[in-house]
Structure formats: C-alpha cells, structure tokens
Amino acid sequence: MEPVLCKGDVVIVRKQSSASTGDIAIVLINGDEATVKKIRREQGGVMLIGYNTAIYEPQFYSNEKIKSLPVQILGKVIELRRKF
Predict the structure, then answer these.
(1) Which of 27, 30, 60 lies closest to 46 in space, CA to CA?
(2) DSSP 54
(3) How many CA atoms lie within 13 A of 50 on its CB side?
C-alpha cells in the first residue's frame, strides 16, 4: 500500500543530500520551490513522481538540468503523521 499525503499531514524528514529509487524526499527545484516527491533514479537523470497524478505528472530532470536549475535533495521522509 502506497502512502498517501493529505492536506494537514506532517512529514518527518532526515536531512540528507541524496535519495534512492523508491524513497520519498523533499526536493528543492530552482532554489525556491520545495516539493515532496517519490524518487526514481534513471539513466541520465531522475524522475520525480507525485502522489496526485491526476494533477501532477511525473517530471524527469536530466543530469544537466539537475546542475543548471538546480534540483537538490534536502532530505528523506522517514515518517508521516496525521491527525484524525
């Protein structure tokens, strides 16, 4: 079962600069846009996959784009907390 992120959820994040395929990470894009995405490493880059695919399509960033924008991993999500 996949984790589902909802409005009001709190994620606990371990600060680290890398993430593996399948990890959920906080990713900083272009220096000012942070997002929570699932990571899929691919040859030549990384795919960022959101949980609401009806609104957010997966985004691929090439190794060149990762450096030029930049795209930076801030940390790995290690826990999700939700109030009832």
Answers:
(1) 60
(2) T
(3) 11
CA dihedral 67, 71, 21, 2 (to 10 degrees): -170
Average pLDDT over residues 51-78: 92
Q: What is the mean pLDDT of residues 49-55?
A: 82
Region of residue 21 (left: phi > 0; alpha: psi -120 to 50; beta: else): beta
What's the mean per-residue pLDDT of the chain?
92
What ranges make up the beta strands (E) of 1-84? Answer: 10-15, 24-29, 33-42, 45-49, 59-62, 71-81
Q: Which one-letter amino acid corresponds to residue 18?
A: S
Pairing of strands 33-42, 24-29: antiparallel
pTM of the model: 0.87
